[in-house]
Amino acid sequence: MADFHTVQAGEQTIAVRKDLRVPMRDGVTLAADAYQGTVDKPRPALIALSPYGKELQALALTMPPQRRPSPMWDGCIEAGDIARVVQEDYVHVIGDLRGSGASEGEHIGNYNAGGVSLGQDAYDFIEWVAAQPWCDGNVGMIGISYFGSMQLIAAAERPPALKAIFVSGGHYDFYETTYHGGIMWLMPRAAREGRGGDSGWAFTDGVKSRMLEEFSAEEIREKVAKRLEDPDVMAWPNLFHVLHYPRNHEAWFDIAMNELDGEWYEERNPVNLASNIDIPVWLQLDQGRGWTLDGTIEAYNRLKGPKKLSVGPYPPMQSRPFIEEHDKMFAWYDYWIKGIDNGIMDEPAVSVFVEGTRETVTADAWPPKKIDYRSLFLRPRRKLSFEPELMGAEHASPDGFYQAPLTVTDRVEIIDWSTTPFEEPVELIGTGAAHLFVEIDQPDTNLIMRLWDAVPNGKRQLLTTGYLKASHRELDEELSTEGSPIHPHTRAVPVEPGTIEEYVLRLYPFAATILPGHRIVAELSNNEPLVDEHNSLLPPDAFHLPVGRPVTHKIYRDAAHPSRLVLPFTQGN
Hints:
Residues 330-566 form the Xaa-Pro dipeptidyl-peptidase C-terminal domain. The chain is of the alpha+beta class.
C-alpha cells in the first residue's frame, strides 16, 4: 500500500503518495510517487517516466539547480521542478520504467526496444493515473532528455487521457543519439554506466542485451571479432572491455556492436513515431547541441496536431535539477488541459533566439526567415572568403595536419580558417554544409568541424558543429539539398588511401548574427579537445571516440577542389 505523508519545500507543504503500484497489462507493476497540494481534490497530472529512478528526481526539492561546469551537475535529474508543478495545482507523478528503480519486469535493449514496448507501458501508466480519484482525468507529461523521448513514445500510442505534451531537450533519432555523422559519441555511456557527472540508469538487474538474446554464442564471438577490427574501438579500453564482457554493460554492448543505422535504431524511433501524434505538442531546445536540434526540427515537421517549436539561447546544457522552460510549459498546459484562454495559441508557432543580437524572431515554420545559401571558400593562408580560389593545387598547395593516436599523445591537432572581420551585421539561421576535399593515408578517419563566432577581444562562442566518419561519406542523393546534406549511415565504405575525396559534412541548425568586428572561424580536426570554451559546458564524458590510428590529412582548396562552407544567410544579408 502506498505511503501518504507530507514534506516541506520552503514554505510550501506538499502531499506525497509514495510507492504507488501501477499495473501493466502483462501483470508487471511499475512504481511511482505522486506529489500534490494538501487540499484533497482531483487535479490534472503531469507524468514523468524514465529509468533514472524516482528517488533521484526528489532531489529537486532539496538541491539548488546546478549549471555546467558545476561538479554537482547530474544529467539524470530531469523530471522537472516538483514544487513548481504542485504550486501550479497539478499532480506531479514520477514513475520508474519496467526493470528500473522499484518497478518489476525486465528491460531488453535501449528504450526496451527488444522487450515490452515502452509506449505500451506508458499508455497503461497514463490511463491508470487518469482513473485515480486524485486525478481529474486529464494528463500531460514533463521532463527532458530520456523523459522527453518518452513523451513522444507515449503520445504515439494515443492514450485517451493524454491531452498534450511539452518536450524540452528531447532525444529523437536514436542512431544520432550515439553516432554523430557515424562517429560514436561517448556521452550515452555515462548515462548508462553512471560515469562522468551522471548517476546513471537505476536498473535492478541490468539491461538485457538484444544481441545476446537474438544471436548464438558463436555468432556473438564472430561479430565481436569483426567489431574489434576497427582500430578506434580496439584502442579504447572501455569499449574493448565491454565487447569482451558484454554482461557488465549489456545496453552499451548493443550500441557499440551496431555502428550502422537501420532497423536496430529505427524500430521505435520517436522521429518516425511523430507522424502518429495528433495531440498538441510543444518542442523546445537550446542551441549548442546541434544533433538534438536537428532531430527536434525533424520531429516537429512530422507532427500532425497543433504544435509549437522554440529554439532557445546558448549554452547547451540546462540545469540539473531541471527547472527551465516551466513558464512556457504551464502556459501550454493551462490552455490545453485546464481550458484557460491565455492567448498562447495566438502567438506564432515558431520562435528562435538569435545569438549575437540576442533577439527572438518568430514565424509559422522553421526556418523562421527565408534564406539564401552562400559559400565561404577555404583559401591559402587559412582564410575564408566569399571568392573561390583560382589557382590549381600545384600553386595553391593543400593545407594539412598529422594526428597521432591519443594512445601516444595528448595533443589534438586543429587546423582553422577565418574570415576577415565583418563590417556589417550578418544573420544566419538554418542548417549548413562543409564541402571538404581531403586526402588521407588510412582507410578511415574522423572529420570534425566546429564554427565559432570570434569576438575582437579574443573570446569566442560556438556557432555549430559537423561530424563525419570518412567511411560514412555516402550521401542520400534524393534527400540531400543545398546546405542540407543527408547521410544514410547504412554501410561503411573504406577510403582508398592517397585519393582525394569530397566529404560533405552536415552543419547542424543554428541561429546567430555575426556582429561588426567579429569573424567566423572554422576549425577542423579528427579528434576534439576535452576542454575548451564549449566542451567545458558539456558533461565530462560528452566527447567522441578518438581515431585509433595515425592519420595524415591533406585538405585541398584550389580551383579544382573548391572546399567551402555553405551557410544559411537570411535574405537581405
